[in-house]
Amino acid sequence: MEDAQGMTTETVHHPPHDQFDSLDKHTQWGIDFLERYAKFVKERIEIEQNYAKQLRNLVKKYCPKRSSKDEEPRFTSCIAFFNILNELNDYAGQREVVAEEMAHRVYGELMRYAHDLKTERKMHLQEGRKAQQYLDMCWKQMDNSKKKFERECREAEKAQQSYERLDNDTNATKADVEKAKQQLNLRTHMADENKNEYAAQLQNFNGEQHKHFYVVIPQIYKQLQEMDERRTIKLSECYRGFADSERKVIPIISKCLEGMILAAKSVDERRDSQMVVDSFKSGFEPPGDFPFEDYSQHIYRTISDGTISAAKQESGKMDSKSTVGKAKGKLWLFGKKPKPQSPPLTPTSLFTSSTPNGSQFLTLSIEPVHYCMNEIKTGKPRIPSFRSLKRGWSMKMGPALEDFSHLPPEQRRKKLQQRIDELNRGLQKEADQKEALNKMKDVYEKNPQMGDPGSLQPKLAETMNNIDRLRMEIHKNEAWLSEVEGKTGLRGDRRHSSDINHLVTQGRESPEGSYTDDANQEVRGPPQQHGHHSEFDDEFEDDDPLPAIGHCKAIYPFDGHNEGTLAMKEGEVLYIIEEDKGDGWTRARRQNGEEGYVPTTYIDVTLEKNSKGS
């Protein structure tokens, strides 16, 4: 009883939760920090994506829309800028790669790990709370048994006091004393039972408490510690992955920057300047010096009309002056183009002519118009033909022509050469297709089970028509190119002859257009009457028909739908006026004078000997 009473004086406190709540707060902070870093990575990804998008939009804005070949960049500075734009576009692609790598390797991994971390933390905290609740339950059971034991001890103490008072009281009956004794024994027995129960509960609680603080809680704390360490390691890996995502693209970005530097080094100012010169080079000659017009000759003119030679000389001077005035006002293809004045003619050159033996005789039958035409032919540029005038007028009226006659000569030559090159490539392609079809046809003929040879005939005919059309186009453009090159060469010859007339006294131009150094032939003879007329007609009319150099017979019919071709029937006989120059076309003429080109493979040609000479 004394022991029991002594135990009643002890006070047992509720076991503390240690630092469980603190660890709960720390782990929650770790998860919050992880999610905050994930949000940071997400915003960085959005910045990279927007940056790449803006770079691509910038490149698209400044990249040219190449609708045609004429708009393609030619200058090295432009080509370098477009190369820089391409490199910048690749650079934008690398920024997209950085964003994708961060999104997959960093942000996605962080979000997945944060979800797993929350689940694991919740499980460990629930285990800790369960252990704490079980320990609290054991403590309550122990505390209840303790209180019951304390209560029973007090009741037993009261029963003992009551029994001792009755036992010492002489007036108390024996029955009262016996009843008090039984009550004391009952209370004492109950106090002993509660004591044993309390001792058992106390022993059980102490065991569970020891287990809780030395086994269960340390295990839970260790798991939380490992979880937090793994979170820290994951953050470290994400930090490294964040940097690696940027470092992986650095070599490619460096190549992009090197490409920009190479593009900058490729700029060639001399080449660009030469392109400008080639683009705007017209091929025209610079205008010559304006001739001196002497208006004072009318003041000092003599009034003597005594001899025929004087009248002729004066008439020649007047005609020469009027010729100069007319030549000055001539219509040129691109405006008026004055030329240097031809060397003046002496009266002797007007009225004398050389004979084979070197003697000279007086000629008085030259009409003024003949002299004027001769002056125009030899000393001045030729009057443009009606076709040239028509082409010049169409140049002013229309924006562009098929033969590029609206362009200056040099530019026209370049355009024609480009078109001829393209047509030749197309012709080569069609020829290759024709060869392939013929080979396939031969295979079908040798092996009918592989296919029908007749099924290839429409395609073969279409290819032949394309070849004929392309050859005709090539021939037509080559004719235009020859015309341009011929005019360019003619202008160079005229400039050369003009320089010779001004600088060399011995070199004179013969009526036939050749030069001679013979001093005896320096005086020019009078041209024939029909010569003036034919030369004048050549300026405004087409050339004379070419002579026939043979004849041909059509082996196959030809429709001649294309421009410049001549239709023919099978067995028809035509005159040959120009041989095949290697392009597969022969120029022929009917008896009615109609001319055109026919395929050389469609005719049987017979050339006549000495036909050109005749």
Automatic annotation (TrEMBL):
Which positions are tagged coiled coil? Answer: 139-183, 413-447
**Gene it is expressed from:** Fnbp1l
InterPro entries attached here?
AH/BAR_dom_sf, F_BAR_dom, FCH_dom, FNBP1L_F-BAR, FNBP1L_SH3, HR1_CIP4_FNBP1L, HR1_rho-bd, HR1_TOCA
> Which residue numbers delimit the SH3 domain?
547-608
Whether Protein transport counts among this entry's keywords is no
Enumerate the spans annotated as REM-1 domain.
406-483
* Cross-referenced Gene3D superfamilies: 6.10.140.470, Arfaptin homology (AH) domain/BAR domain, SH3 Domains
- Amino acid composition bias (Basic and acidic residues), ranges on this chain: 488-499
Keyword terms, alphabetized:
Autophagy, Cell membrane, Coiled coil, Cytoplasm, Cytoplasmic vesicle, Cytoskeleton, Endocytosis, Lipid-binding, Membrane, Phosphoprotein, SH3 domain
Q: What is its main location?
A: membrane
What processes does the entry annotate via GO biological process terms? Answer: autophagy; endocytosis; signal transduction
* Pfam families in alphabetical order: FCH, HR1_TOCA, SH3_1
Q: What is the lineage of its organism?
A: Eukaryota, Metazoa, Chordata, Craniata, Vertebrata
Q: From which domain of life does this come?
A: Eukaryota
Native species:
Mus caroli (Ryukyu mouse)
Topology class, membrane: Peripheral membrane protein
Chain segments carrying region Disordered? 488-548
UniProt lists the family membership as follows: Belongs to the FNBP1 family.
Please report the name of this protein according to its UniProt entry.
Formin-binding protein 1-like
F-BAR domain spans which residues?
Answer: 5-272
Q: Where is the composition biased (Acidic residues)?
A: 536-545
- Gene Ontology terms for molecular function: lipid binding
